Fold this protein.
Amino acid sequence: MKIGIVVYSQTEHTYSVAQKLQKRLQEKGNEVELERVVMKGEVHPGSKDMEFEIVPDVEKYDALVFGSPVQAFSLARPMKAYLEQIQSLQGKKISLFVTKGVRFNWTGGNQAISKMKEISQSKGGSIVGTDIIIWNKNRDEKIDALLARFSAIF
């Protein structure tokens, strides 16, 4: 299976999870590419003027994993803008994950996953897995659980 892992990451936390997932999925015999959504210049909270520097093309993949940080209690604006500009995810299996720093449920993880899910499904994608990684002392256990769950899906 050809799998694309597409992430937006500012602090490299989200990217580091994606790298581990890429390795695990490759060990299972999948062809896996890790791509980044990259913005031109700095993206400030509340900024409406965003320009992409790198826009990964999802057409070539059978399945996708989208990863993003939670920012301002919601999905990071660059990932939201990226997902919205995708023309179609028809027939693609999709897993989603977010990383966040605050452990409380009301701090945006569920909202971010819901937004990613809503956009992906509106483009015809089939959501097969989701996860939230809280960047605290237990993060390695949570990352291991994500790797096990997502590698069982693909």
Q: What stands out?
A: The chain has a mean pLDDT of 92.
